[in-house]
Amino acid sequence: MSTPTSHTNEPAGSHANSVATPSTAASMNMDLLRFATAGSVDDGKSTLIGRLLLDSKSIFEDQLEAVEATSASKGYDYTDLALLTDGLRSEREQGITIDVAYRYFATPNRKFIIADTPGHVQYTRNMVTGASTADLGLVLVDARQGLTEQSRRHAVILSLLRVPHLVLAVNKMDLVDYSKEVYDKIHTEFTTFATKLNIPDLEVIPISALAGDNVVNRSEHMDWYSGPTLMHHLEHVHVASDRDLVDVRFPVQYVVRPKSEDHHDYRGYGGQIAGGVLKPGDEIVVLPSGMTSTIAGIDLFDTELDEAFPPMSVTVRLTDDVDVSRGDMIARIRNAPTPTQDIDAMICWMTTTPLQPRQKLAIKHTTRTARALVKDIHYRLDVNTLHRDQDTKELAINEIGRVQLRTTIPLLTDPYSKNRTTGSFILIDEATGITVGAGMING
């Protein structure tokens, strides 16, 4: 799945657990949280992100002045903070978010990447792209409207994508006189709905993005609410156990051979760690060949590491001169994925030409590319009602369904519920090179 550009060579998230050593935890004193926003049109996603950027002092003075000037020129009686994120001219003209907009900011406690995703049903594919790598999903609802069909749909998609943490932000509380009764009704309705989904961690926070209530600073108008502000929750949400630090998965992206005066005999294998903790001295197996070896060293630029873990990008050196190339995977000898050519997955279809049985596509899974045949479409999932339409013969754009694929070569997969990297893939139109689908492998 698509991911925003990030500093992949830095440890992302406090992922130290019983597997990681104290040195791991010490190196992660300022971690990264990726979160995706979702909500119906006019629920205030862009305004909320603008408020987070403003109140965390993450925008420049001239940016704020430009937004203030634009707001005044449009005749607004307030500063429209949504202008900080709706960067496309067409979005500004319509007052909506269309594409996924990535924003970066930091506080003394944590670094953040925000994926501001569209609310329209016709942009479901954009939301899937933005949320596919998120640690946390932030769903906004308008306190005046309560839960809508789109609110439920966004929660279902975040659940399908196995986003481990979810925040329901009940926005525009200032427009309902900061009513506890309104908040309680929405809270009860959503938590009841969430029991049908796979949402391990849920927080419901009443806010006003426009006025700043409970966003960064605690609201003086809602003394009945004793929970955290949104920023406090984002800074302190526990993500240590979200990544798999047990099952070693290292898809090889590049064979590193500098052939320079200083490194005549250097040979390493570069890539991003998808699971587990790697250490020098570990016995490993290279798949699909099955050749075994031992890790001689792990390099990060000009530094040799004592250990490495997801999602670090490193170069691994082996003690033996085994045949390793792009698309191979390094794993533990007694804990390796089983190669398979039969893929059972949930697919989000992303193009106007429908997905149909017998269709042939290219499939990209981690660093390995193959061809795939669509054997069957089991059902289309109605993300509003969770109904499974087993009579469907195709998947249209923005639809999600369960599909059976057969690949030309074995892929080294895990269930998406176990590992979101080795459990996902994209489908590509071979004629155009366009990504037409994103898949999540069933367990």
From TrEMBL:
NCBIfam families: CysN. The keyword ATP-binding applies. Residues 1-20 are annotated as: Disordered. The lineage of its organism: unclassified sequences, metagenomes, ecological metagenomes. This is sulfate adenylyltransferase. GO terms for molecular function: ATP binding; GTP binding; GTPase activity; sulfate adenylyltransferase (ATP) activity. It comes from freshwater metagenome. It is an enzyme of class 2 (transferase). Pfam families: GTP-eEF1A_C, GTP_EFTU. PANTHER family: TRANSLATION FACTOR. InterPro entries: CysN_GTP-bd, CysN_II, CysN_NoDQ_III, G_TR_CS, GTP-eEF1A_C, P-loop_NTPase, SO4_adenylTrfase_lsu, T_Tr_GTP-bd_dom. Residues 30-259 form the Tr-type G domain. Its EC number is 2.7.7.4. One of its GO terms (biological process) is sulfur compound metabolic process. Keywords: ATP-binding, GTP-binding, Nucleotide-binding, Nucleotidyltransferase, Transferase.
